C-alpha cells in the first residue's frame, strides 16, 4: 500500500472518487463499492463496522480516513414541530457553524440544508447574507446534515435553501446530489430534491446540464432597478439574462422550475408588480412561491398585509401563473426563510 499524507473524510465521496482513493492506496477495486455500501446504504458511523473489509484494510483505512460524521451541536424545537439543528464545521478555521431545518408536514418531511458558512450574495433582506461569507461546505458537510439527524428515515424531500448560494459551491452540490440520487448511493429520485439560486449564470448553466433536480430561482422583484436595491447579484447577472437561459430548457417533463418571491410591504406587493411578474415569466412552464417576509433587526423591511398577498396571488393565478403561498414554519426559533445565521 502507498503511504498517505493527512486524512480524508469518506462521507461525500462519490463512487468514482472512492475508486480513485482505493486505487491510490493499493486496495482492490471492489473495495470502493464495499465502502460505498457501508457509507450510504448502511450509513455506518465508524470504520470498524465495515466488516467485509479485512482487518488490515480497516486498520489502514483508520490511519488515512475518517467517516466524516458530526452530530448536531444543538436542536431547537418550534411550537409548530419544526426543528432547527446547529452543526459545527470543524474544517473551517476558526471553527464555524451552520443551521439545518427539519420541517414535518403531514405525510411529507422536508430538510432545508446549508451549503456555505454565510453567503457572498449580500441580499439585503437575508440574515445569512448580512453576516458575510466564511467558507464553502464540502459534499460531506452537506450530507452530514441529513445523515446525522434522528429524522433521516422520515425525509421525503431535501431543499438546498439554507445558508449559502448553491451555484457558488456547485462542485459540492453536484457531488452531494449524486450521492443522493445514484443507485450506489441512496437511490432517490431527483424529484425529491430542489436546489435554489439567486441566478449565478455560469453555475446555473452547468447545473442545468449536469443535474435533473428541481430548480428554485430567488426572484423577489421583476423590476431590474428595484431588484438591484435588494439583490446585488442583479448587477452581475441581470434577471432578464437568467430568464433567457432558463427558456432554453424543457420544463414540461421531469424537472420543475419555480420562482421564490418574498412579499415586502410597499415594495413589490402591488398589482403593478404582479403584472410585471406575469410579463417576465411569459412562456415559461413554472410556478411562483410567495413567501411572507420574516422581519428581523438586520433588515429595515416590513412584510406585506394578508390582503395584499392574497390579491397578488389571485392576480397571478388568474393570468396563467400557478402561484402558491408558502407556509411560514419555525419563525419562533428563527428557522424560517432568510433567518438562518449559524449562531452558536
Question: What do you see in this structure?
Answer:
The structure is a single chain. This protein is α/β, with parallel strands linked by helices and 344 residues long. It folds into 2 domains: 59 residues, Orthogonal Bundle (DNA polymerase, domain 1); 260 residues, Alpha-Beta Barrel (TIM Barrel), CATH 3.20.20. The chain has 12 helices and 14 strands. Strands 3-4-5-6-9-10-11-12-13-14 form a 10-stranded mixed sheet, with helices on one face. A two-stranded parallel ribbon has the order 1-2. Strand 9, helix 6 and strand 10 form a beta-alpha-beta unit. The radius of gyration is 21 Å and the shape is elongated.
Number of helices: 12
By CATH, the superfamily of the largest domain comes out as Aldolase class I
Kindly state the mean pLDDT as a whole number?
92
Radius of gyration: 21 Å
Brief overview:
The protein is of the alpha/beta class and 344 residues long. The protein contains twelve helices and 14 strands. It has two domains: 8-66, DNA polymerase, domain 1; 74-333, Alpha-Beta Barrel (TIM Barrel), CATH 3.20.20.
Task: Give keywords.
344 residues, alpha/beta, DNA polymerase, domain 1, TIM Barrel, 2 domains, two-stranded parallel sheet, 14 strands, 20% strand, disordered N terminus
Amino acid at each position: 500500500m502507498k503511504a498517505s499524507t493527512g486524512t480524508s473524510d469518506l462521507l461525500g465521496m462519490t463512487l468514482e472518487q472512492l475508486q480513485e482513493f482505493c486505487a491510490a492506496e493499493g486496495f482492490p477495486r471492489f473495495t470502493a463499492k464495499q465502502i460505498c455500501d457501508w457509507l450510504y446504504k448502511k450509513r455506518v458511523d465508524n470504520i470498524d463496522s465495515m466488516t467485509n473489509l479485512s482487518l488490515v484494510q480497516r486498520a489502514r483505512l483508520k490511519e488515512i480516513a475518517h467517516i466524516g460524521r458530526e452530530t448536531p451541536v444543538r436542536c431547537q424545537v418550534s411550537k409548530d414541530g419544526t426543528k432547527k439543528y446547529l452543526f459545527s464545521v470543524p474544517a473551517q478555521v476558526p471553527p464555524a457553524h451552520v443551521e439545518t431545518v427539519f420541517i414535518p408536514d403531514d405525510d411529507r418531511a422536508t430538510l432545508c440544508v446549508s451549503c456555505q458558512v454565510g453567503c457572498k450574495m449580500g441580499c439585503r433582506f437575508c440574515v445569512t447574507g448580512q453576516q458575510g461569507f466564511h467558507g464553502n461546505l464540502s459534499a460531506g458537510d452537506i450530507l452530514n446534515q441529513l445523515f446525522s439527524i434522528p429524522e433521516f428515515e422520515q425525509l421525503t424531500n431535501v431543499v438546498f435553501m439554507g445558508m449559502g448560494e448553491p451555484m457558488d459551491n456547485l462542485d459540492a452540490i453536484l457531488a452531494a446530489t449524486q450521492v443522493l440520487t445514484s443507485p450506489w448511493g441512496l437511490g432517490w429520485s431527483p424529484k425529491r430534491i430542489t436546489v435554489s439560486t439567486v441566478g449565478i449564470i455560469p453555475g446555473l448553466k452547468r447545473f442545468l446540464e449536469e443535474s435533473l433536480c428541481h430548480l428554485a430561482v430567488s426572484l423577489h422583484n421583476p423590476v431590474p432597478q428595484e431588484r438591484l436595491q435588494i439583490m446585488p447579484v442583479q448587477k452581475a447577472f441581470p434577471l432578464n439574462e437568467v430568464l433567457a437561459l432558463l427558456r432554453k430548457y424543457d420544463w414540461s417533463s421531469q424537472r420543475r422550475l419555480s420562482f421564490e418571491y418574498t412579499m415586502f410591504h410597499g415594495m413589490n406587493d402591488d398589482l403593478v408588480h404582479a403584472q410585471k411578474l406575469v410579463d417576465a415569466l411569459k412562456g415559461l412552464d413554472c410556478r411562483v412561491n410567495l413567501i411572507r417576509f420574516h422581519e428581523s433587526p438586520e433588515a429595515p423591511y416590513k412584510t406585506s398585509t394578508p390582503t395584499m398577498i392574497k390579491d397578488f396571488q389571485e392576480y397571478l393565478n388568474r393570468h396563467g401563473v400557478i402561484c402558491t403561498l408558502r407556509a411560514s414554519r419555525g419563525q419562533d426559533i428563527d428557522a424560517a426563510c432568510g433567518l438562518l445565521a449559524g449562531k452558536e
